[in-house]
Amino acid sequence: MRKILGPTRLDDGYWKIKTNQEINDILKGQNIIGFIKKQRPIGRPKIRWEDDVLEDIKGMNVRNWKNVAQNRDRWKKVIEQARTLNRL
């Protein structure tokens, strides 16, 4: 927090690093670690798009999908199969 808040300029033109007490006064007694922990989302992590796609590929029993994706004709067949499954 000391780096974030920066130094204080005094009346005589010199700069002074904030003390722990000054930082606590600015934060109004809040513990920064406790504050950060309160901000974290609680519950299961959100599902990424990639995870959802990989689950669909597993559900369609596509083996070695990276090699299948290299062959455009085979990959188009997989996409058509996915469209009929999910009714897209």
Structure description:
The chain is mostly helical and 88 residues long. The chain has 6 helices and 2 strands, in the order αββααααα. It has a two-stranded antiparallel ribbon with strand order 1-2.
How many DSSP-defined strands? 2
Low-confidence stretches: none
Mean pLDDT figure: 84
What structural category do the secondary elements indicate? mainly alpha
Helix-strand topology string: HEEHHHHH
The shape, in one word, is elongated
Helicity, in percent?
Answer: 55-70%
The tally of domains stands at 2
Major pleated sheet: 2 strands, antiparallel
Quickly count the helices. Answer: 6
Q: Looking across the biggest beta sheet, what order are the strands in? A: 1-2
Beginning-to-end CA distance, first to last residue: 50 Å
Radius of gyration: 28 Å
Range of strand content = under 5%
Notable characteristics:
88 residues; mainly alpha; 2 domains; two-stranded antiparallel ribbon; 2 strands
